[in-house]
Design a protein that fits this description.
The structure is a homodimer.
Chain A (H helix, E strand, L loop, with lengths): L21 H23 L4 H13 L1 E3 H8 L3 H13 L3 E5 L7 E5 L1 H22 L4 H24 L1
Antiparallel strand pairs in A: 1-3, 2-3
The structure holds a DNA duplex (23 and 23 nucleotides).
DNA sequence: TATTGTTATACTCTATAACTATA
DNA sequence: TATAGTTATAGAGTATAACAATA
């Protein structure tokens, strides 16, 4: 990981090595992990990644307004809107108007949606467990904390431009 | 991180929590890191991610055949082909036929391409360094090894389907 | 005037495969 | 028959913004 940052060379030949560049490595890792997991929700159950995230969010939370699904699942409001529209067509979720706020719609899984969720979850958890078996418990803890800190730093970089 | 894997509940309510699900977390992290880095190569220098990777590969390697750029930069041959075509139009790379293999074309940066590379690299390294400042040296080492192992496991999951 | 959610549009990316030229 | 690389095409995903309804 370009971790040592030994800038032996000056601007004319900076110490840059793509395969060790952290942003590259995390992109490749995430892409491969996503492929491995999407074999479950996409290939076997024909859900897009956004649709799977919405199902997962509702599986964890029972009832949510669309505006809360976005922040919970790292999707923007259009991705949520489109995913929710398709999931409703497929009979996997239902929407009812919120009495408290006429603009909002409360979204929840139908029984079919919950059954789907319950089928997918064990398969994805098994794959996650297989991935994490590569690590010792203390390594997992360090990884988890590292990811939280890196995410916070990435977000502060994005903010400042 | 769904790391503890305490499956207290049975299939009817598996211990699934999207925000702690490792594949979700690594996807979100990679996306945010990519946004933070693409502010450099995309917003300031108008390169797509694939184009930046090709420039970076050639910055690290001087001369490469297209077939070697793909594996080096985690791009498929079409992504390489398109990126290379645009970079050539922009005068950032050049292609010459390989005398040893009439099918292959040897690709290298032009002086303009190398100048661009040398401008981008310090900026991306600075952002990488900022991200990694969040971690102690030993944490970086553990993270680096963890990423290698997780990648290998993800690839073996993909292979077996 | 701001927020919730949908729709429209254009653009980019991706995936598959057909195609050429060489080997 | 296989490989290096390009091109074609269609589908999926993305970004921006306009829009309607409600607050």
């Amino acid at each position: 990981m370009g971790l040592t940052m030994t800038r032996a060379a000056a601007a004319s030949a900076p110490d840059f090595d793509l395969p060790r560049f952290f942003p590259y490595r995390v992109a490749v890792l995430a892409e491969r992990v996503s492929q491995a997991i999407s074999q479950v929700y996409l290939d076997r159950f024909d859900l897009s990644r956004a649709e799977w995230r919405v199902v997962a969010a509702l599986g964890c939370n029972e009832k949510m307004a669309a505006k809360d699904i976005g922040p919970y699942s790292a999707l923007d409001k259009m991705q949520v809107s489109r995913a929710v529209a398709r999931l409703e067509q497929e009979g996997l979720i239902r929407r009812v108007g919120d009495k408290a706020d006429g603009r909002a719609k409360i979204i929840s899984l139908t029984p079919a949606g919950r059954t789907l969720y319950q089928r997918i979850v064990p398969l994805t958890l098994a794959r996650e467990a297989y991935l994490l078996e590569a690590l010792e418990p203390n390594e997992r803890e360090i990884l988890s904390r590292a990811m939280d800190r890196l995410l916070a730093r990435a977000e502060s970089l994005i903010e400042r431009g």
